[in-house]
Specification:
four-stranded antiparallel β-sheet, 18 strands, 41% helix, globular
Length: 776
Amino acid sequence: MAKQRAHLNPGKRALYVILAVVLIGIISIAAFLLRARKSPAGNQVEKNQPPPASYAGSASCQKCHAAAFADWAKSHHALAEHNIETNDLSAFQHPVFFGGLSNVQVFITNGQPHVIAENLQSKPEDFKIERVIGESPLRQFLVPFPGGRFQTLEASYDPRSNVWFDVYSNENRRPGEWGHWTGRGMNWNSMCAACHNTRLAKNYHENTDDYSTTRAEMSVGCEACHGPLKAHNEWQQKSGGSGKPDPTLARLKRQQTFENCAFCHARRSDLTADFKPGDHFADNMKVALVDRTDTFYADGQIRDEDYEYSAFLGSRMHAKNVICTDCHDPHTAKPILPGNWLCLRCHALGSTNAPPINPALHSRHQVFGFDRNGIATNLNLISYSSAQIKETGGECINCHMPQTVYMQRHGRHDHGFTSPDPLLTKEAGIPNACNRCHQDKNADWALKFCEEWYGDKMNRPTRQRAQIIIAARRVDNDAFKGLLTILSSEEIPYWRAVAAGLLEPWITNGVVQVALARGLADTNDLVRAECVRALEPLVDDSNPAILAGLQERLGDPIRSVRIAAAWALRARMNHSSPAWQDLENMLAANADQPVGQMQQGLLALTEGDSREALTHYRKAVEWDSTSAAARHDYAIILSQVGQNAAAVEQMEMACRLEPKVGDFEYELALAYHAAGQETNVIPALQNAVQLDPSLSSAWYNLGLAFSAQGNVSEALNALLHAESLTSEPRVPYARATILARSGRIAEAKAAANQALRLQPDFKPARELLNTLNTAP
């Protein structure tokens, strides 16, 4: 399960003023596995939680749709969640399970499974287990907690090997952490339930911090994909034999079907917590994209627990209008054909307009059913099951859909359909399928064969795009030029959106501003939303054209864009406007998670309510004590309200939690200065520039701090470093003042003139130069 991450954007802040709060990025709304299980279908709704009146339950579909029902009943969807049953109890015959660095005991008492596990106070406690999510390759177990909660145990069971294991591996998460089994990162109501059940309503009550969660049906039933069917059942009973079309049924379009799958198969955050079949994904969720974090690799491959949707959005398959049900049976969820025969439905010679592929010749590996010349030896292979086909290395998915194992047991295929490129492995550590299999070889070995076999085809546009993103993540000086090319000419909207999001560090560049402003009118909502977010730092009266463009997006037809615009313009919003209501609903949907509290805290700060902001940030830190980003933001607000000692404490903790973040050390120096702990300022600034030599503001303030100590040579050296990294006139001006005080008048004049070359109307440099020119 992926933890929330901070999007660090090192600012150009003076040592004596804290100007901004860094907002955490996206929390992963984790949807646990959808797994298969042999058990009675159509699980009943819990007694005290009646289903919505328009839902009939999956069992009502069986009579008329027997074949589809039978397929579904054995699927991962039907068995996504269930109450403890007799055949679950065999797992609890093992008396002791060793998980991580702590011991967990499982046992049965009076037919009820129990676990002794670490509680919130770090002490062993006996907990009753009530439900199971998943079956194979692992089962996880739900424990009831106060406040209507269910928590997901770290102790998980692999029925294939009949062993227990720690789903966290050796992380040894502790109580108080967001991701500990007692924490909010493993809370069923918020993190699991919506994707393991049908038409879930989380029903979180912020005032009391509890839940009254309801659902139409346990597990992912028929109506999770087809919508409520009670009216359909009633119409069929009355008019089913009339031959007339059923007016109660609204068949989903291809895009709606695709986005219905995306609801559970995407790494995303909620905007409404109210998605239902037929709804537009972007009206209800914000999907995670390739960005500055390491959530995805630069070429779009999944790295963290990213699921399938994001990678697929960036693929050429999606660009050609392929959707999930073109490859997967909608009721079994399994591929509709085994092995390469699935891919050859489109990529065989003459099949479609897709590039024709001969698997044996293309892969240069042996392929089941083909000889070495690529001639099929058995044209009846489509009758084989996937289990009967022996993998030989030449299967399409081995190279273009490599697997990554999550939760210690679940290998998931990457749906980005990328091509292996060992050069990107050498340049940026991006994995390639060649070395995933040939682990005894290195990237040079793989690159040699790729270049021999495929020649100039290896230098494909996707490689160039990944190299641009790699450079942008490093904030290389000219990387924005490549991003602008992607934004203006990339065919796949996903990558235009990625480029827009990555352009933020160059937001002061006029060309970048024009390109992003143009992107506000892109035909794709992902692109428009990312352009809004990138332009947010320019929201002020000095940018009327950009301000007008952002205000126009408040009326965007897609909610995710409206919310992005409302957030960017939050200090200027009409609180009765529809876009503001969208924003408030989004905040309410995420109020039970630390990131939601941080968003509310930042909004309160924007409105000048520091007391309210502190309340929200204090709660976020309590809910995730190991979040460095939460402590960082909390520290800044504490400093702004004059609680400087407390701010230092929080920033020191943030630095201990994330010891390699230069910006945190820089903020710690600010906190030390505000608290009057001057002896700690220079060491903190030195740590900052050592961790991140590109922090111009840290070099600048280090120069000022050395100057305050009378250390002229070190001060000038630090300012020269800053000057090499930024074009801000204040830096050479500071150097000019130090030189003037040292009696080095000619050098001081030269530095002052440098400040004026950077900004001719920079008044302090002009005044200093006049003083130096008129001095006796």
